[in-house]
UniProtKB/TrEMBL annotation, chain A:
Taxonomy of the source species: Bacteria, Bacillati, Actinomycetota, Actinomycetes, Micrococcales
GO cellular component: a single term: cytosol
Name assigned to this protein: Phenylacetate-CoA oxygenase subunit PaaC
Species of provenance: Metallococcus carri
GO biological process: phenylacetate catabolic process
Name of the gene: paaC
Gene3D superfamilies listed in its UniProt record: 1.20.1260.10
Signal peptide residues on this chain, from the entry's feature table: none
Automatic annotation (TrEMBL), chain B:
GO biological process: phenylacetate catabolic process
Main EC class the enzyme belongs to: oxidoreductase
GO cellular component: cytosol
EC number: 1.14.13.149
Gene this chain is encoded by: paaA
Region called Disordered, residue ranges: 1-21
Protein's name in the database: 1,2-phenylacetyl-CoA epoxidase subunit A
TrEMBL record, chain C:
Protein's recorded name: 1,2-phenylacetyl-CoA epoxidase subunit B
EC number: 1.14.13.149
Superkingdom of origin: Bacteria
Keywords on record: Oxidoreductase
NCBIfam families named in the record: PA_CoA_Oxy2 (TIGR02157)
GO MF terms held by the record: phenylacetyl-CoA 1,2-epoxidase activity
Keyword Oxidoreductase found: yes
Gene: paaB
Keyword Oxidoreductase belongs to the record: yes
Length: 258, 346, 100
């Protein structure tokens, strides 16, 4: 990241990463509606998706104020191209089975839990406000993932094997959550943000405690590690996700309201 | 929870908002005399789960409540189809919350059905193998974004017409579930109208989308009230018995007429032409006249030959089957917990 | 417990009671299915309080509820009907005595 970057731009870029994580994960969670293992679980996943969408909207609105472009939440969500999205790869992964989703949710909510716990004291008041609200939501998300990882890990032999396989599949996407970028460093220096690397040990300790109690094993160090999401380098799945999310909005360029 | 800034907040938009529900609440919650079934039903009392009731009454309720619940669950699909593509984040949030409500309504209703001594899993099996139906309206596809609005406005609007009287159904648990459903459903209808109202003030293509959706959903919405059941058609139907039992309060035809009367002015407001050349105000009757409904289409779709019948059931069955390992795991875990705590006590 | 038991895909029924606000009793809201108490409580939260309807939730296994039977209604509840002396209006006191 360029050293001469204006502080407002650093903040905007930093917030965009958090916003895109929440938005893109909403998109994936929304795919579960009418497909959950039990109807009660449709309700639960719907609530989590709505919480994340609320975070994304508040953060995107803030980004539009800070970056000087005057874009609103929809301009940011619908009119950016793939390379401009700053989310981590974990959230864009195509939907797998319910075990995959709980493995993803456990890691993501553990990360967000540590993240928002610290961001309540951000010097950006809007971000601090979002964090204060989000921490309650994320506490529930993390608990939800915990409850399910325990049940799937310590349930039947089949569910044990499937939950372990899901944890293994998600492992390559974990490192990116806790990797610092130049923007993270600049945002931390200015008091707006927090270094992802500082969240790693607490989040990992939490996940490990759940995995242990669930009679599962922490995956070995993955051979491959996803990287580059914060620089707009995504997986091939991302293009399809955006094509679907954006197409109605974009096919009506002269529409001013929906 | 979502602001509606498109109209006067005191203006009535639908039956549930218009105080009809509040009028029903006192009778729906009346204590009742207790006593034998016939007396309860004839005095507008409430039958409660452990009361004695005729088997035919029980079976009718199970069938009707289950079909109602199934409709909510299958109804998640046509709208869920648009969650990923909602053209604004505000609409995405509304739609997510709405589809989630459908799941919730399904659960309230299964819960009511279960008080009659059936298990939800039995009912779901019957949905999956086609022994029990769901509302045929959901066998139509949602082809454009405007369809999401049309479902809210017309389909949920029609549903509310049907459901408000059910808030004082003679069977207590069903009536209570319906009160909860109706309160939540009024948000559904309003968001649909608001969505369309926005399109109506938008670009030419947005307005065309709105008109197209109204064209496709109008007649299926009228069919939702069911086949004619007044006059000659009343003979041999279920309506008479259901009315005597206090399960049904108005005939299909009366509800349909009420719906048409309520909806035509709303269509005018939206600048939509409803696809019926015979639709016109009849001052003598004090109602709108409307053209003949294609009941062949109704029966055809009901019997499986609709655009989406197979797709809807296949989707539902696959979710159920793909989730079996999860449900089994949770049961096994619960057994382990129970045996551990027994072990600890012993 | 034997590990060989066939796992059940069906979950038991729970009754849900919600306290709408502080100062009020928990009231029966409906039922739901869940495999165990923890998930029953969470499902109840997601199903019955998503519009802010509650500040506290109870869940009880439906099987664990003992209910009076309608057959016993006469013997259970009718005897209370003639005990008018349990109600304050039974007693006649002078009109000019306050705080009674």
């Amino acid at each position: 990241m360029d050293k001469t970057i204006a502080p407002a731009d650093v903040t905007a870029t930093y917030l965009l990463g958090l916003a895109d994580d929440a938005l893109i994960y909403t998109q994936r969670l929304g795919e579960w509606m009418s497909r959950a293992p039990q109807i009660e679980e449709d309700m639960a996943l719907g609530n989590i998706a709505l919480d994340l969408l609320g975070q994304a909207r508040a953060l995107l609105t803030r980004v539009g104020e800070l970056d000087g472009t005057g874009r609103d939440e929809d301009a940011l969500a619908y009119l950016r191209d793939e390379r401009e999205f700053r989310n981590v790869h974990l959230v864009e992964r195509p939907r797998g089975d319910f075990g995959d989703e709980m493995a993803r949710l456990l890691w993501f909510s553990s990360y967000q839990f540590e993240l928002y716990s610290q961001l309540t004291s951000s010097t950006d008041e809007v971000l601090a406000g979002v964090a204060a609200k989000a921490i309650k939501e994320v506490t529930y998300h993390r608990d939800h993932a915990t409850q399910w990882v325990l049940r799937l890990g310590d349930g039947t032999p089949e569910s044990h094997a499937r939950m372990q396989a899901a944890l293994d599949r998600v492992a390559p996407y974990v490192d990116e959550l806790f990797t610092d970028t130049a923007t993270d460093e600049a945002a931390t220096t200015s008091g707006v943000g927090v270094l992802p690397s500082q969240l790693r040990s607490a989040a990992t300790a939490y996940v490990r405690s759940v995995v242990d109690e669930a009679t599962l094993a922490m995956p070995a160090e993955p051979r491959r590690r996803a990287r580059g999401g914060r620089d707009g380098i995504h997986s091939q799945a991302m293009g399809y996700l955006l094509a679907e999310m954006q197409h109605i909005h974009r096919s009506h360029p002269d529409a001013t309201t929906w | 929870m979502y602001g509606n800034d498109f109209r006067d907040p005191d203006e009535q938009l639908n039956a549930a908002e218009g105080g009809a529900l509040d009028q029903l609440l006192p009778t729906a919650t009346r204590r009742g005399e207790g006593g034998d079934f016939e007396r309860l039903v004839s005095t507008d009392g409430r039958v409660e789960p452990r009361d004695e009731m005729p088997d035919a009454y029980r079976q009718t309720l199970i069938r009707q409540i289950a079909q109602h619940a199934h409709s909510e669950i299958i109804g998640m699909q046509p709208e869920g189809n648009w969650i990923s593509r909602a053209p604004s984040l505000r609409r995405k949030a509304i739609l997510l919350a709405k589809v989630q409500d459908e799941a919730g309504h399904g659960l309230y209703l299964y819960s009511a059905a279960e008080t009659l001594g059936v298990d939800r899993s039995e009912l779901l099996d019957k949905l999956h193998n086609g022994q029990q139906k769901y509302s045929s309206i959901f066998n139509y596809p949602t082809l454009t974004w405007a369809d999401v609005g049309a479902i809210g406005w017309l389909v949920d609007g029609a549903a509310i017409m049907n459901q408000v009287p059910l808030c004082r159904c003679s069977y207590g648990p069903y009536a209570r579930a319906m009160i909860r459903v109706c309160k939540e459903e009024s948000f559904h209808q309003r968001q649909g109208f608001e969505l369309l109202w926005t399109l109506s003030r938008g670009t030419e293509r947005q307005r065309a989308m709105l008109q197209d959706a109204a064209n496709r959903w109008w007649w299926p919405a009228l069919m939702m009230f069911g086949p004619p059941d007044t006059g000659e058609a009343a003979k041999g139907g279920h309506t008479e018995q259901s009315m005597a039992w206090g399960i049904k309060r108005f005939s299909n035809d009366d509800l349909r007429q009420k719906f048409v009367d309520m909806t035509v002015p709303q269509a005018d407001k939206l600048g939509v032409t409803l696809p019926d050349p015979d639709l016109r105000w009849n001052a003598e009757r004090g109602h709108y006249d409307f053209g003949p409904i294609d009941w062949d289409e109704f029966w055809r779709v009901l019997k499986g030959d609709g655009p989406c019948n197979e797709e809807r059931i296949a989707h539902r069955v696959s979710a159920h089957e793909e989730g079996a390992w999860v449900r089994e795991a949770a049961s096994a875990y619960a057994d382990k917990l129970a045996s551990r705590s027994t072990g600890a006590v012993a | 417990m034997s590990e060989a038991q066939t796992p059940r895909a069906e979950w038991p029924l729970w009754e849900v009671f919600v306290r709408a606000k502080r100062g009020l009793s928990h009231v029966h809201a409906g039922s739901l299915h869940a495999p165990d108490p923890q998930l029953a409580l969470r499902n109840a939260r997601d199903l019955y309080t998503r519009r802010g309807e509650g500040v506290s939730v109870w869940v009880v296994r439906a099987d664990d509820i003992t209910a009076s039977s309608p057959d016993e209604r006469d013997s259970f509840f009718d005897p209370a009907g003639d005990k008018v002396y349990r109600h304050p209006t039974f007693y006649e006191v002078p009109d000019d005595v306050e705080y009674l």
